[in-house]
Task: structure prediction
Amino acid sequence: EEKHLGIYADLLSRNAQLLPGGAAQNTARGAQYLLPPSSVMFIGCVGKDESAEKLAAGNRAAGLEYCYRYDEQAATGRCGVVITGHNRSMCTDLAAANCYKLEHLKENWSLVEKSKALFVGGYHLTVSVDSIMALCEEAATKNKPFILSLSAPFIPQFFKEPLDKTAPYWDYVVGNETEAQSYADSHDLNTHSIPEIATHLANLPKKNTQRKRVAIITQGTDPTVIAVQGESGVKTFPVHKIGKDEIVDTTGAGDAFAGGFFAGVAKGESLERCVDMGQWLAALSLRELGPAYPMPKKTFTPSS
Result:
């Protein structure tokens, strides 16, 4: 709302820390953290302003490649985060993030063709479904892993139709327990059981039958639940332990998990290792202010 727009100047006047965002870009930076430099390419939309320049600089520092569409009218999107203890309040002005166009993706299609795996944040379902479907078809036709994040409870609640349109193309679908339960409510599953919802997601009709779909549901400090298409039961993975006094900020922890998991998929790691990489990166992020990762880089060490 317009009445909240003053928060950004207020935060900057208090020496707030600036970090590249939002959710999908956090995930891209997370995946890049675990991969060789310039392994990950982020595509999105920004304005022609100082904020876009700061975003680009942050990406370069992280070794992340980027290909932005620059909107002539809208400003670069912003998200202000206020932290109290372990809790957070967020205020987002999407601005240019709402202005991505399929034409830009077509103009840069060679980047898509070079990709080995594709990740889309569910938030983009509110912006350019045509762009997502183009990526879906690329993944299915060429047997590239396609990962979709549910992103937020309102996505399955208010964007059910475009979400369902992409569903046959999911090789991996990831979300937290609140997002999963929102999906269950919007699809009349009559359950809030995380194993049941994960199993339902994994066994939806699928376009690319060369890959089994995997549904991944995180639950904060509770075990991560995994369901695999055609397999009975679910797998659970305890999270990496972190003391309460070590937690600095929970902002972006889910994005970090997705980033670590995506890096594992891109490397061709086992499902167990992908989850381990995601949980390891999420634990690192929890110790940082904002959706950030420690520098100098730490080296991933398997939990077992």
Remarks:
- The mean pLDDT is 96.
- The first strand starts at residue 41 and ends at 47.
- The chain has twelve helices and ten strands.
